[in-house]
Amino acid sequence: MPYMTSPNSSSARHQSAVCIVGNGAIAKTAALGFAQAGHSVTVLVPPSASITPAAAGEPAWDVRVYALNHTAHGLLSSLKVWGALDMDRVAAVDTMAVNGDGARPGDLAFDAFGAHVGALAWIVEDRNLNQALDAALRFAANVTIVQGRAVSLALEADGASVRLADGSAIASALVVGADGGQSWVRGQCDIGVDYRAYHQRAVVANFSCDKPHHGVAHQWFTGEEGIVALLPLPGKRVSLVWSAPDALADTLMNESLGELAVRLAVLAGDKLGELKPLQPEAVKDLPLALIRPHAIVAPRVALVGDAAHVVHPLAGHGMNLGFADVAGLLKTIAAREPQRAIGDERVLARYARARKEDILLMQVATDGLARLFGTNLEPVRIARNLGLNLLDKLPVLKRRLMSHAMGK
To answer: Over the range 264-292, which residues count as b (16 or more CB within 10 Å of their CB) and which as e?
Structure first.
């Protein structure tokens, strides 16, 4: 069945091998992956969901961007999505420059040349990514889109059934929860979570710069003012992600973007020249938290993306973890024994084991760095800056860190 929106009625019962709950890039990628592997797929999206429209003329720059690594690039390329992106709006990251704080700040730099790759990562707008995914889904075989509100998830003899508010249902051998940090699917499975708010918000906006950025992603650990990143966009443009403590975030959101540009100029010095807002009112803020579910699988259910883990954005790898989940789930299911169904408990347990180390390492690393650089004690400040300088002089360890961050 082709990509379509299916009307709901109390008598409707949709049957497919896989039911994917969610409407973000991870959910869409999972739908494409399963469909291209030959499985029938039903995607359940909220009633208000719509296909991301292609903007007429030159659209404004999206303030929500992702630093996609090689794992994401490889998966999207294999699904024929990467080539459908508007590449004029994608920027390669050639260098990552990390800066400490205090009177003698530490410095650490990673570059594509040292990693023997063409780029460390690629900065892609949320809109650009979703438009490419929607275009691919329109031509995908065996994908049905159902709009509705899920009310219950029940196990059946040979699978699971998601019942909707209008009385209709989606029956499948496997349910994939790709419905975000507050996952409904996860809640239906009674999977507990460890939750800790960082008392920070990510303030995001875009700026033009007088000087070329040369593909450098800058990051400043400022201590009490949080973590500031300026990511390269095509041309003389950069995207801001400022993980700011709540009180400072309130101030930043109440200021004009011109005032925010002045703050950034103090950090950037003469690296980028004068910064100017690309769109005067285009600024958003997102609350930050660590969410660690106690499991990422349940009977006939697998979680991917933010439903499976939410980490601090300081490393820019939340979305990459989600793409790695999808790649891992597809690989595990493709390698299952012929007699095992795709929702088989042992198959899903293999997926959970395969993802455990990568997820745990990213959770520990991002949480540890957020705690370390959020401490303002002078001895800690000195130690962490010395650590940055030392790491910068250890090429073997640097290469290992780069390799993991790139997903290679």
So the answer is: bbebbeeebbebebbeeeebebeebebbb
What is the C-alpha to C-alpha distance for residues 110 and 343, in angstroms, rounded to an integer? 41
- Show the tokens assigned to 366: 């991002």
Query: Domains of the chain by range and CATH?
Result: 5-54+130-194+291-369 (3.50.50.60), 77-126+196-288+376-406 (3.30.9.10)
Tokens of 387: 């650590």
Three-state secondary structure call for residue 335: coil
Q: How far apart are the first and last CA of the chain?
A: 35
Q: Are the C-beta atoms of residues 206 and 233 closer than 8 Å to each other?
A: yes
Length of the chain: 408
Beta bridge partner(s), residue 14: 170
Structure tokens at 172: 């499948």
Report the predicted TM-score, pTM, of the whole model to 2 decimal places. 0.89
**C-alpha to C-alpha distance for 147 and 126, rounded to whole angstroms:** 21
pLDDT digits (tens, 9 = 90+) for 255-311: 999 999 999 998 898 899 999 999 877 899 999 999 999 999 999 999 999 999 999
How far apart are alpha carbons 47 and 199 in whole angstroms?
32
Sequence letter at residue 388? L
Query: What is the per-residue pLDDT across 311-341, written as a single tens digit (0 to 9) for each?
Result: 988 777 889 999 999 999 999 999 999 999 9
Please report how the helices 318-334 and 25-36 are oriented relative to each other, as an axis angle in degrees rounded to 10: 20
Question: Which secondary structure element, helix H or strand E, spans residue 292, and what is its range?
Answer: strand 283-293
Are 327 and 370 in contact, with CB atoms under 8 Å apart?
no
Which residue type, as a one-letter code, is found at position 140?
A
Which tokens in the block code for residue 281? 């009112």
